[in-house]
From TrEMBL, chains A, B:
May play a role in DNA repair. It seems to be involved in an RecBC-independent recombinational process of DNA repair. It may act with RecF and RecO. This is Recombination protein RecR. InterPro entries: DNA_Rcmb_RecR, Rcmb_RecR, Rcmb_RecR_Znf, TOPRIM_dom, TOPRIM_RecR. A zinc finger (C4-type) spans 57-72. Residues 80-175 form the Toprim domain. Keywords: DNA damage, DNA recombination, DNA repair, Metal-binding, Zinc, Zinc-finger. CDD domains: TOPRIM_recR (cd01025). GO terms for biological process: DNA recombination; DNA repair. Belongs to the RecR family. One of its GO terms (molecular function) is zinc ion binding.
């Protein structure tokens, strides 16, 4: 067996990660091989561990080791507010900024006719169920300020209207065309605190 | 156990790779989790495999699964030429360009008084032994066109002078301050074919 095949396969897989190309993948792999015990093997072990244990929260679609994620399990987070985000990365951005004390609902994308993503591909019916089940009084639509994001927010708002729940969207501070995951904490805080009724 | 700890640890390790930062590491990890079976678990398995099997060729310091790498084992590569490079990445660059048919010698760095790297930290004595053992008639010093690279080339040339072996260095086509691993194949080919006696 020729071990350089494994190295090439490893470079090839690394090069497919967002933000890496063939050249940076080669550098990363050499770096890892040089730091075998402190980087390469721990990374292999953690990836295996995460791959075997992490799944999707049945309630909010956050990542979780159990059926229900710690945020959904925490009674402290049951403050009557649900923040709807497109992606787990957006939930992470909110949590890093520490500006929101309620629970989340991860749609898992946006409506996108071009990509053949319709309402059934997103996590919307479950959101409607949660309004009553968790005594929710406000749903904050924290979707990206993109066309797809705002189309999706509009659709979700329409779907939830019959429940009578309060609806708001992030407002001031979000740059046009901007994406949530790129905002600094201060901008995110301003956008949240000056949210406007939908 | 809270699985988000593992995810955070994974992001942290990924963020230490050259070319990645915290933000791109988060995106990469989310991407991997979403492609658990096609990306995350295969990557974990390959990293483990590479970590357990890859070592350094005892002859040339190339990466290898055996004590001696395939290039050193191949009689076809015993053409009397050894190409001295700083790093395995440079050897890869030469092999990709397919411009050299001889064997390599990987120094594993450059002389660098500031970083406390002296001749004993590099792979130089072994190179002298190889001149006689492998009937070498030409050593091509393919080191980076940096101050450290050229200082190292000068030192290696002095060390090898008593053996009477022919010495050359990559010439035309290498930009001043440039690094081997960044060159396109054509430039590398030109630099090799117009190499000048040292
Ligand atoms: Zn949850
Ligand atoms: Zn070798």
């Amino acid at each position: 067996m020729d071990g350089t095949r494994d190295i090439e396969a490893l470079i090839d897989l690394m090069a497919r990660l967002p933000g890496l190309g063939p050249r940076s993948a080669r550098r990363a792999v050499l770096h890892l091989i040089k730091k075998r015990d402190s980087r390469l093997l721990p990374l292999a072990q953690l990836m295996d561990e995460v791959g075997r244990t992490i799944r999707t929260c049945l309630n909010c679609a956050n990542l979780s080791t159990g059926d229900i994620c710690p945020i959904c399990l925490s009674e402290k987070r049951a403050n009557g507010q649900i923040c709807v985000v497109e992606d787990v990365a957006d939930l992470w951005a909110m949590e890093r900024a520490q500006v929101f004390q309620g629970r989340y609902h991860v749609l898992g994308g946006t409506l996108s006719p071009l990509d053949d993503i319709g309402p059934d591909d997103l996590h919307i019916p479950k959101l409607r169920d949660r309004i009553a089940a968790e005594n929710v009084r406000e749903v904050i639509l924290a979707l990206n300020a993109t066309v797809d994001g705002q189309t999706t927010a509009h659709y979700v708002a329409q779907e939830l209207a019959p429940t009578g729940v309060g609806l708001s969207g992030l407002a001031q501070g979000m740059p046009v065309g901007g994406e949530l995951d790129y905002l600094d904490d201060g901008t995110l805080r301003a956008a949240l605190s000056s949210r406007k009724p939908y």
